[in-house]
Specification:
It is an enzyme of class 6 (ligase). This is Phosphoribosylamine--glycine ligase. By secondary structure, the chain is of the alpha+beta class. It has 13 helices and 24 strands. The strands form seven sheets. Strands 3-2-1-4-5 form a five-stranded parallel beta sheet, sandwiched between helices. A five-stranded antiparallel beta sheet has the order 12-15-18-23-20. A four-stranded antiparallel beta sheet has the order 6-9-7-8, with helices on both faces. Strand 10 (192-201) and strand 11 (205-207) form a beta hairpin. 49% of the residues are buried. The mean pLDDT is 93.
């Protein structure tokens, strides 16, 4: 029996904890820092630590068998390097490998160097040069903060005015801090986006189930970009042909390219891909972004479908044995709907009390994963932008959706925002 550590506080980390506890080999999971749900789960303890050195010391002192890193910030801060320096088992990319996410410019240059399909781009630190480039290229056009911006550093500008305002915001007023000190401006791609997530052990690749995220705040993909307002798995757009092409054209050259650059990649790798219109054998496939972690909220429906022992897969990955692992997936659809706080994504309000009248509370095919929640005076309150992800399994997309929204209807907090159309592409395709 093993003690594990999960680093992070969001819905992804709640889902990882939930999935790991299903392993007969796990006796306890520490979550740093965790949230309101992990604070009250059996066999789980929240730990108020965040620095890589403190986390490594905790893992050593508490005989932690293996650590899994959830979010991007600890990876960019070098938490994997700190653990490895102490001889501790941890699953995630090193700080150097995590540049695939922590620097958009690094990722774009890497893709260009290794022949991985992506939109044409230029990088700027000078606002005047960026504005001139926008005028020359026209709209629509995409403006991205170079660094980590919690899913909010991307503006898909449909007009020149929007594009210029995005550059002014990122390079001019410093609202994104160091993340926006440099911007990547790229061509706007059209098609259908999918999330393709794999595990890697430096040389071997194990793909996870496909999924599709919903980035925009409002129904019909309207409103500002967010960290994700819902997701479902599998994604119908990722046919067997498209799956093989993504592996061949994107994933394999990425892992071999990192090896060639002297940076063997171990960890989750998320490729956000835009799949163009047309026949599956010939339609375009372009990488929009890399994340060096599982996506949130994609993790929740993906792990709802995972029947295999997650710890066994993580163990094999840390040992370089991923080629020995096959994963068993529930054939049903899993669908998650995010409930977000008032004001999200601009300025999320916190401290609102969450109540749950309990409709479908004991349904075995529904799990409410917590993200921005905390316990205050024995009450569950909102503590972040995205608060919950209500996730359900169903024989069809429609059945999963009905079950998720039925459960969501019993959960209340002031100012709650959520989309009513999660998986609309799957239902109209």
């Amino acid at each position: 029996m093993h003690k594990l550590l999960v680093i992070g506080s969001g819905g992804r980390e709640h889902a990882l904890t939930w999935a790991l506890l299903r392993s007969p080999k796990v006796s306890h999971v520490y979550v740093a820092p965790g949230n309101g749900a992990t604070a009250s789960m059996a066999k789980v303890t929240n730990v108020a630590l965040s620095s890589p050195t403190e986390l490594a010391k905790f893992a050593k002192d508490h005989d932690v068998y293996l650590t899994v890193v959830g979010p991007e910030a600890p990876l960019a801060a070098g938490v994997v390097d700190a653990f490895q320096a102490q001889g501790l088992r941890i699953f995630g990319p090193t700080q150097a490998c995590a540049q695939l996410e922590s620097s958009k410019d690094y990722a774009k240059a890497f893709m260009k160097r290794h022949g991985i399909p992506t939109a044409a781009y230029e990088t700027f630190t000078d606002p005047a040069a960026a504005h001139a480039y926008i005028d020359a290229q026209g709209a629509p056009i995409v403006i991205k903060a170079d660094g980590l911006a919690a899913g909010k550093g991307v503006v898909v500008a449909t007009t020149l005015d929007q594009a210029h305002a995005a550059v002014d915001s990122m390079l001019g007023d410093g609202s994104l801090g160091a993340a926006g000190a440099r911007v990547v401006i790229e061509a706007c791609l059209t098609g259908e986006e999918a999330s393709f997530i794999i595990m890697a052990d430096g040389k071997h690749i194990l793909p996870l189930a496909s999924s599709q995220d919903h980035k925009r705040l409002g129904d019909g993909d309207q409103g500002p970009n967010t960290g994700g307002m819902g997701a479902y798995s599998p994604a119908p757009v990722v046919s067997a042909t498209i799956h093989d092409r993504i592996m061949r054209e994107v994933i394999l050259p990425t892992i071999s390219g990192m090896q060639a650059d002297g940076l063997p990649y171990t960890g989750f790798l998320y490729a956000g891909v835009m799949i163009g219109d047309g026949d599956d054998a010939t339609r375009s496939i372009d990488v929009l972004e890399f994340n060096c972690r599982m996506g949130d909220p994609e993790t929740q429906p993906i792990l709802m479908r995972l029947r295999s022992d997650l710890l066994e897969a993580l163990d094999a990955a840390v040992d370089g044995r991923l080629n020995e692992i096959t994963l068993d997936w529930d054939p049903r659809t899993a669908l998650g709907v995010v409930m977000a706080s008032a004001g999200y994504p601009a300025k999320a309000r916190t401290g609102d009390v969450i109540t749950d009248s309990g409709a479908d509370k004991d349904h075995k095919d529904v799990v409410v994963f917590h993200a921005g929640t905390s316990l205050q005076d024995q009450k569950l309150v909102t503590s972040g932008g995205r608060v919950l992800c209500v996730t359900a399994l169903g024989d069809t997309v429609q059945a999963a959706r009905e079950l998720a929204y039925s459960r969501l209807g019993s959960i209340k907090f002031d100012g709650a925002q959520y989309r009513n159309d999660i998986a609309w592409r799957a239902l109209t395709s």
